[in-house]
């Protein structure tokens, strides 16, 4: 079974769990649904809400809880920065492998299914057809497992809205909604009553259109969380993050009020306050954060991104400072365009290697000049070997929307030429015969221990 396609890095991430003692009500609501028995229990729970509300934290907390109590389970996360991994083509093969690792009966059934279906012309192990994966790799082995009638089997699918475009997730939505036009495709409602799917996403039109009004899908919105509960949880979070910084309970309460239910705003605010700023105290940074007008909920995150970026690239009226700021802005747009324009995130060393081949000489600078001060916005900045990308999908949305980001706007259509040119130059200079220094060209890759 080792050859079955598996999406590396798409599983449970305990770093994304909720802070202990927060989100008690909604977590209890979901765990109660997981443990419910009866004939009319919805088998899918769709947790929807806008960016920054904490959907993924809830998803990974539930996944960790299910794993901890020994239930048969799998957690599968989509990530807009990993679209090159084509995770939408690996979802049910990955989930199947997760489940069989915990269930010997299902493992034998999956091995039989793969052996029966494989031929020189059709490899079920490597198929990108999620209909086949659903039928052959997941449903049929599940039916042959004695655990299909026992305790709940829980499958968490996080950030469905980051699975690509409308076309890439159409079949997945139809499977979860039981609406696939092919009658041969097993309907989710025909499966055993102990199967539970938890799906999180923003309420995009295509997802809403497929899920709305479906009887076996229970819809839970993050917007339905009482404001008092959200404020309490965010207050607990900011008091933990700013512990020992000299702030009082009243100031934590003000931050929680300003967050207006957005955990991502609270995370960014705490990061901004804790960061060292030349000539500014933490109290000064706190004052700057809480003075932002929170009247428009939709602009809260944009406002925080603008505050952080303006602090990184401050304005100044003197001609010399304006010239330096123009250079800094141009470098910021160039680096962020490179990061956002890549089909797959690259580490610092690779970004620098590519940048040396950009067509314009003014772009031949080290990426560190820009990313070293962006740890609150980007992942991977502390390790030269870690892929660099936005910590939250909303930051990409902000940068690629001109009315929101204004002078920080990244026009991805103008980035592709530089990336294509640099990629070709890297290949021109780096490709060579037997680049992997193989001792023999007669061995298949699978038999070479160095690959």
Total strands: the figure is: 7
User: What's the helical proportion of residues?
Assistant: 40-55%
Side by side, the strands of the main sheet go 2-3-4-1-5
Strand content: 5-15%
Order of helices and strands: HEHEHHHEHEHEHHHHHHHHEEHHH
What is the makeup of the main sheet?
5 strands, parallel
Structural class: alpha/beta
Q: How many separate helices? A: 18
Are there runs of 5+ residues with pLDDT below 50, and where? none
- Taking all Cα atoms into account, the compactness measure Rg is 24 Å
List the main descriptive attributes of the protein structure presented here.
five-stranded parallel beta sheet, alpha/beta, 7 strands, two-stranded antiparallel sheet
């Amino acid at each position: 079974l080792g050859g079955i396609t598996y999406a590396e890095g798409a599983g449970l991430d305990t770093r994304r769990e909720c802070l202990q003692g927060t989100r008690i009500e909604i977590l209890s609501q979901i765990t109660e649904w997981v443990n419910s028995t009866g004939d009319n229990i919805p088998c899918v729970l769709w947790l929807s809400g806008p960016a920054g509300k904490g959907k993924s934290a809830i998803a990974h907390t539930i996944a960790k809880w299910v794993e901890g109590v020994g239930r048969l389970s799998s957690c599968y996360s989509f990530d807009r920065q990993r679209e090159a991994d084509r995770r939408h083509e690996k979802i049910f093969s990955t989930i199947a492998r997760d489940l069989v690792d915990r269930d010997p009966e299902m493992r034998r059934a999956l091995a039989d299914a793969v052996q029966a279906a494989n031929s020189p012309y059709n490899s079920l192990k490597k198929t990108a057809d999620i209909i086949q994966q659903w039928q052959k790799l997941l449903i049929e082995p599940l039916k042959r497992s004695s655990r299909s009638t026992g305790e709940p089997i829980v499958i968490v699918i996080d950030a469905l809205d980051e699975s690509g475009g409308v076309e890439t997730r159409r079949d997945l939505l139809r499977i979860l909604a039981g609406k696939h036009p092919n009658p041969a495709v097993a309907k989710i409602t025909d499966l055993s009553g102990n199967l539970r799917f938890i799906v999180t996403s923003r309420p995009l039109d295509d997802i809403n259109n497929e899920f709305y009004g479906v009887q076996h899908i229970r819809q839970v919105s993050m917007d339905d969380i009482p404001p008092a509960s959200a404020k309490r949880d965010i207050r607990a979070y900011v008091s933990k993050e700013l512990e020992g910084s000299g702030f009082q309970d009243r100031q934590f309460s003000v931050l929680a009020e300003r967050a207006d239910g957005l955990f991502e705003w609270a995370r960014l605010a705490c990061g901004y306050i804790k960061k060292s700023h030349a000539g500014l105290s933490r109290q000064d940074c706190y004052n700057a954060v809480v003075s932002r007008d929170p009247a428009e909920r939709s602009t809260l995150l944009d406002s925080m991104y603008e505050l952080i970026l303006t602090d990184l690239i401050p304005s100044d009226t003197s001609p010399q400072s304006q010239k330096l700021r123009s250079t800094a802005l141009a470098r910021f747009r160039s680096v962020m365009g490179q990061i956002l324009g890549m089909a797959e995130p690259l580490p610092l060393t690779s970004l620098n290697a590519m940048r040396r081949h950009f067509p314009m000489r003014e772009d031949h600078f080290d990426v560190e000049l820009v990313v070293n001060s962006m740890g609150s916005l980007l992942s991977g900045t502390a390790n030269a070997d870690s892929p660099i990308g936005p910590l939250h999908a909303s930051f990409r949305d902000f940068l690629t929307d001109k009315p929101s980001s204004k002078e920080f706007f990244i026009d991805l259509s103008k980035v592709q030429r530089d990336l294509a040119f640099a990629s070709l130059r890297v290949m021109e200079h780096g490709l060579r015969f037997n680049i992997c220094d193989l001792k023999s060209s007669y061995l298949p890759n699978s038999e070479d221990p160095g690959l």
